[in-house]
Structure formats: C-alpha cells, structure tokens
Write a structure and sequence with these properties.
By secondary structure, the chain is mostly helical. It is built from 6 helices and 2 strands; from the N terminus they run H-H-H-H-H-E-E-H. It has a two-stranded antiparallel ribbon with strand order 1-2. The longest helix has 27 residues, at 155-181.
Length: 186
C-alpha cells in the first residue's frame, strides 16, 4: 500500500489535460490577440487562472500541505508568495517609498501558510487585491518601452517577468497538486 494518491483527471477527451477543452476557461475559440501588449496580458491572465485552477476544490489542510522537507512550499504558500511579489513589482515602478511586505519577514509568505480557512480566504483576497493594483499601475503605461521607477524598469520587462514568475510557480503547483490528490494535467 502506498501513501501516494492515484493519478487522475476529470478530462475525458485528452487524459493529460486538466479539464476537457470545452470546459477550459483559458481556451478561447477566437483568434489570438493582435499586438505585443494584448499577447503578454493574455499569457499573464492564463497563468493566473491556471494557478487558481490548481488550487480549486481543496481544503485548507490540502492547500497548506508542504511539498518535501525541508521545503516550506505549498499551494497556499504560492498564493501568498505571488501576492507578495505583485506588491514588490509595484515597488519596482514607483518613485516613492516602497510598500511594506504583506506577510513580514523573508519566507513568511510560505511559513505562514497554515491550514486555516481564514488564512486561505485572506490569501485569495490579498492576491486579487495586489494583482489588481499592479495591473492598474501598469495600465497607466501602455507603451511597453516606458521605463519606470528608480531603476528605470521597462514595462515590457515587468510584464515578461510576471509571466515567467507565474509560469514557474504553475509548474510547482502541478507537482504540489499531484502530491495532494493525484490530479494531473496541463
């Protein structure tokens, strides 16, 4: 007998998918976006949605389950971490004083990811709020070549970095979710 959950997916059309194509909110029937900015924003939106999908249907205990020692990584920790980095990215593009960390000291985003519904609710609320605030700050600068903040970070660089961060953590979420309940898929 193994402690490892059996691998599964609700997809019936392609067994390596998270959901069937007709049920996937990330897929659109229309053409791909025109232009660099709309393309980058679509990729960011899809990776954000993928992370949420990987967390759906889990209890606070499952969301807070750590990967492998000594790592403190969990799905809940990823939600909190991405809220923290959204805030940090806003700090990159401001000329003013930086906003304080959401969760305090280094690694508190992961270490504070405990199995409590109020912590889960707060993590989702924090992530939505921080994403919206960073999106709004960048929407004021539609020219991807615009350089912002004390270091002159280009809007393009920030958008690509955000996509990279979400994509990397979606890979972590794939493995974390499979360890929690065996669910697999892109």
């Amino acid at each position: 007998m193994s402690d490892q959950p059996a691998r599964w997916t609700p997809a019936t059309v392609h067994p390596d998918m998270w959901v069937d194509p007709d049920d996937d909110p990330r897929d659109s029937d229309g053409p791909s976006p025109d232009g660099e900015l709309p393309t980058l924003l679509e990729f960011l939106t899809d990776y954000r949605l993928t992370l949420r999908m990987k967390c759906e249907g889990l209890t606070p205990e499952q969301l807070a389950r750590r990967s492998v020692p000594p790592s403190t990584m969990s799905l809940l920790g990823l939600l909190r971490h991405l809220a923290e980095v959204e805030r940090d990215w806003r700090n990159w593009i401001t000329d003013g004083d930086p906003l304080p960390k959401l969760y305090g000291t280094k690694d508190a985003d992961f270490e504070g990811a405990v199995a409590d519904q109020s912590v889960v609710n707060a993590a989702y609320a924090d992530l939505e709020r921080e994403q919206a605030a960073t999106d709004a700050a960048l929407a004021a600068h539609p020219d991807l070549g615009t350089r912002l903040g004390k270091d002159g970070t280009a809007v393009r660089e920030l958008l690509v970095h955000r996509i990279e961060e979400y994509a990397r953590h979606c890979g972590h979420a794939d493995l974390l979710r499979e360890c929690v309940d065996g669910r697999v898929g892109q």
